[in-house]
Amino acid sequence: MTENNEISVAIIEDDNEIRKMLSLIIDGSPGYNCKQVYADCESSFGDIVNNPTDVVLMDIDLPDMNGIEGVAHLKEKLLETDFIMLTIKDDDESVFDSLCAGASGYLLKDIPPAQLLHSIKEVYEGGSPMSPSIARRIINSFRPTSNYTLTKRELEILDQLCNGENYNAIAELLHVSGHTVRTHIKNIYKKLHVNSRGEAVKKALRNRLV
């Protein structure tokens, strides 16, 4: 917090109009101070590390380095700074990766100004503000899902994929042919709505399927 007992905020946003709007909202509100404004992650690195701020509002879709990568880079150097993603992206991967990178909050850009200010104060006081739809998505991710009707054999193979085993090792372990393993894996991909081993493992772990 600044000497005037204001919460200092930095904005990293490539849209000029949105930057101006956010800056006006923050500077025009008692108890808040828009300390720094940047159009991309890279231009913020030197300045923001040498002049830390309380809270950073970070967009995801930025030129060159995206906001998730930016949070991961800055969080290592700014342990006392809280990061809130402020974005239009509401897909599971963006939410999950942002929180793993070190973000403490995740807000959608349609958030009303009063709620944005409340969220900045909330994260500063140790909370984790989320847009309602994002909070529901996160809560649901911790609930066992019944949407993936994998068979016992498919779950066994998925478990081995998560353990890093290759197709031949799985076939040998389960006493089946390599062709059978590949057929099961195709079915697993189809049921999980993924296209690669990495995506399958990520979804399996996120949904606690194994």
Write structural notes for this entry:
With about 210 residues, the chain is α/β, with parallel strands linked by helices. The protein has 2 domains: about 5-140, Response regulator (Rossmann fold); about 150-205, Orthogonal Bundle (Arc Repressor Mutant, subunit A), CATH 1.10.10. The protein is about 50% helix and about 15% strand. The chain is built from 10 helices and 5 strands; from the N terminus they run βαβαβαβαβαααααα. It has helices at about 15-25, 45-50, 65-75, 90-100, 115-125, 130-140, 150-160, 165-175, 180-190, 195-205; strands at about 5-10, 30-40, 55-60, 80-85, 105-110. Strands 2-1-3-4-5 form a 5-stranded parallel β-sheet, with helices on both faces. α3 (about 65-75) runs parallel beside α4. The chain is elongated.
Which helices and strands occur, and which strands form pairs?
Blueprint: E1 7-12, H1 16-27, E2 32-38, H2 45-50, E3 55-58, H3 67-75, E4 82-87, H4 92-101, E5 105-108, H5 113-124, H6 132-141, H7 152-162, H8 167-174, H9 178-192, H10 197-206
Parallel strand pairs: 1-2, 1-3, 3-4, 4-5
From the structure above, extract its key features:
210 residues; Arc Repressor Mutant, subunit A; 13% strand; alpha/beta; Rossmann fold; elongated; 10 helices
Q: Can you summarize the main beta sheet?
A: 5 strands, parallel
Number of helices: 10
The termini sit apart by 44 Å
- Under CATH, the topology of the largest domain is which? Rossmann fold
Total count of domains: 2
What's a quick, concise take on this entry?
The chain is α/β, with parallel strands linked by helices and 210 residues long. It has helices at 16-27, 45-50, 67-75, 92-101, 113-124, 132-141, 152-162, 167-174, 178-192, 197-206; strands at 7-12, 32-38, 55-58, 82-87, 105-108. The protein folds into two domains: 7-141, Rossmann fold (3-Layer(aba) Sandwich); 152-206, Arc Repressor Mutant, subunit A (Orthogonal Bundle).
